[in-house]
Amino acid sequence: MTERLKSSMTFRTQAFLLALACVIGIGSLMGGVFNSQRLKTKVSRIDAGPQQSAEFRSVVAEVDQQFQTRWEKKQLRHAKPASTLTVMRRASLALHGTIPSVEEIRAFVDQQQFEATDDEILDRYVNYLLQDRRYSDYLSERFARVFVGVDNGPFLIYRRGRFRLWLSDQLMENRPYDQLVHSLISSQGVWTSDPEVNFVTATITGRNNGRPDVMKLAGRTSRAFLGMRIDCLQCHDDRLGTIALNPEHPSEGSLQSDFHQFAAFYSQVKTGLYGVEDDHEHYAYKYLDEESEVIVPPVVPFYQELVDSRGARRGQLAQWVTHPNNRAFARTAVNRIWAMVFGRPLVAPVDDIPLAGPFPPGMERLTDEFVKHDFNIQHLIRVITRLQVFRLESKAEFEINSEHESAWAVFPLVRLRPEQVAGALNQTASLKTINADMSYLVRLQQQNELDQFVKRYGDTGEDEFEDRAGTVTQRLLLMNGNLLQSRITNGNGSNASSRIAMITEDDQDAIESVYLAVLTRLPNQRELSHFLLKFRNESDNQRGRLIEDLFWTLTNSTEFSWSH
Amino acid sequence: MSCHTATHWNRRTVIQAAGASWLTSLASGLTNAQETARDTKHPPKNVIVLWMQGGPSQRDTFDPASAVSQEFSGGVQSIKTAAKGIEIASTLPMVAEQFEQLSVIRSVVSREGDHARGVYNIKTGFRPDPTLVHPSLGAVVCHQLPSESDIPRHISILASNRPGRGGYLGDAFDAFQIGDPLRPVPDVRSRVNQTRQDARSRDLFDVVELEFAAGRFKNLDDSKTLHQLSIKRAMRMMSSEQLRAFSVEDASRTDLDRYGNTSFGRSCLVATQLVQAGVRCVEVTLGGWDTHINNTEAQRDRIRILDPAMAAMMADLKASGLLANTIVIWAGEFGRTPQLNGASGRDHWPHGFSVVMGGGGIRGGQVVGETNKTPDIRAENKTRDVVNPVTIADIHATVLKALSIDYQQELQTPIGRPMAISKGTPIAQLVG
Predict the structure, then answer these.
(1) What does the pLDDT look like over B197-244, one tens digit per residue?
(2) Does A205 sit within 8 Å of B203, measured CB to CB?
(3) Chain A residues with CB inside 8 Å of B17's CB?
(4) Using the beta-carbon criterion (under 8 Å), do A527 and B207 form an inter-chain contact?
(5) So where are chain B's domains?
(6) Shortest Cα distance from A478 to chain B (angstroms)?
(7) How many A×B Cβ pairs under 8 Å?
(8) Rg of chain A, C-alpha, whole Å
(9) Where does B46-182+248-346+355-381+399-420 sit in CATH, by number?
(10) Distance CA B5, CA B428 (A)
């Protein structure tokens, strides 16, 4: 299909959805009385059970102690615990890609407790986030970028959408991470009914008689699952000694053959009548400075003793990669999940972890825990979000510098990802939670608007945790763009701005509600008195307008666009 | 674009709007702009990229094979151009007249035959690398030739996807995207009147931002977030007279007609205005070149749009004197097979295709390299009979050298990896 045809189809689909959503939107508006009773009941059934066991507590305490020791050694002060609301915002952005709704905030926290710190509420909140489909939908896209990238790839034989949906299902079922990765590397079948094989078909380029690209697969496997960038070895030996593949002798350089012997594990994979299959093809390669091609045997670059050399090559590779004693695998997963939770990895770049260390506080202990709990992703997230470092303030009474941030003595300031900004903006505009309980078509229509927003805002692509500067385009989009305008304009009846104008009792209530909806906190005294004065100086019929202005001001703040 | 004077901000009102707190940095920006303008010893140089999305056929454009059989030539005839000894497809008569200023490289070879990878390759000069995103040519030019202007200095018009990116230089170097110049520039008009906008900005800068900065990094905005700085730049753009350069409102009907009055034509006209206004790199996209079926007709359909637009742009740049410091490049992600397929189409062909360039110190009227008119497209070594092959990296090195940019210098990626700007060799026939 030509690119032009594709884009015109998208346009038609959008127009159709827009029309449908309008019809449905009117319906939902009429019945849209703000009522969070259903959510309150749901929330009351969620406990902090998993986080209360003695074993869980002792792991958390051990990791906390490692960070404490590091701070003492470096003579760094650390920040105070953050308020419950601050941590809720972080957790929601990390696990749902959006901010908490006013409805959710009220279901979890009493207004009097907003400024307090309550670890049990936060544990319950994390458990709530983990059982909501938004968790798997959001994280599946994050993982999909690691596993298959962002491009649409070869048409017909690669179905990114199916793959993502499959991943979301796996995360929702909390399938052990080792099993999930095992099936990515070794599965056979058709890209539609066995979506995990898209990991393989994503690399088909039309060359090599339609066989998947062995080198791409090897590069992807080493980066995504072993935390190693061995791609450079594809063309030459490691002359700089920067790629250490021998855990006992880390200063030993590595060879071009290390890469190709690793790649040889993918030599048998092909696509046939029944989709992705394996045959008995050898892997031949002409090394740099060699005269002719040689048959390259499949050999793993380290921990050779963990290989079980029976069965198809991909199966052997999958078994070795995910072996509980293959520390690189578990460590890489811990580093990535940490990065998803904090917005910044423990070891940077996220996919380049030295095999023999040295490792920062937390890394090894969390890796042990992840392996011991059978690669349970949700357990790991519970542990990480329970750590002291996740619950610290991002500001302090002492002067913060980059050393505090790099030692996790304060919570790091991290620029939100485009999807998080879009998600937050969308949630901001609705007091009710935008989740699976909302009409499918309304969500689909919203998704379309959000996709457009993300496209213009600037997608981060695969390169996920690099610090990137903001752009003028982003600011213009937030200041004057359609998405914000449609979400804050007063008088359309259904958005938060209109509802706050209608249902709040007095000015203070209105101002506090906007702060809660946009920044997940109450205004402090100075802010409150400033805006109260403004509201009092205007006549009553200007109130809606002032609420709109406040929405604009808060959504255009640094605070809104950063995780903190 | 319509320019509503009622809501149109001038620079003074923007400064007043946001209070004195950020006046200093804005004022220093303006001084820089004036200094740059005064510096005439090294005239600033610019780049206009005419991006042919989908892969234009060299046989239907700048490397016709009129003397050979239909299955290779596709029936395309050639015509003489203003440059002695150079013939191009007869479907480009107007561009042919401009060929004293243009040169064609007919022997471009790359190893990327997939759209996404090819676009990346040609726009950045590097093959896709999973561990790093390279900046596109426009981003490199903006990075290497700093200057101040109210509007973004890297602009992409009509890009449906994959516009030029800042890559490891940072998103700040991403191309600012606009559509057909008949429509207003997106998001540059405030949604409320000026009094309200002023009040909003004051609340933001004097209340909410101050509260957030308390207890955090010293100079939070300058040293880390650059949030307020970006807002100020955005406001400066909103109030800038230079926004008129995005519009064809001032162009006469005759001028619009000379460019063909298509969205691409209007965009080419706007590209000349933008360069005049201080924009470093403009990329204008014309899509629809991916002609796997009925190649000759489908290519001709695109060429009808291309010919007047490209020719009028070259003529106008020359007449205004801008061509002396503006390089024009015509390219797509690859060429198309020299032999028609069963559906009278041509497929992807990175093994010997054409790129055209001129202006800004690039020698015009030259032909670089040569392709076999009737090659065996199933040969193992598909580039075996390409004469004087030129790589994508060579093309980048050529352009960068013409811009007096040290193309061999190494820049640091965010993780401290040194990366050469280009690993190619400039084409001596064109620069040197």
Answers:
(1) 999 999 999 999 999 999 998 888 888 888 998 999 999 999 999 999
(2) no
(3) none
(4) yes
(5) 1-37+190-240, 46-182+248-346+355-381+399-420
(6) 9
(7) 163
(8) 26
(9) 3.40.720
(10) 51
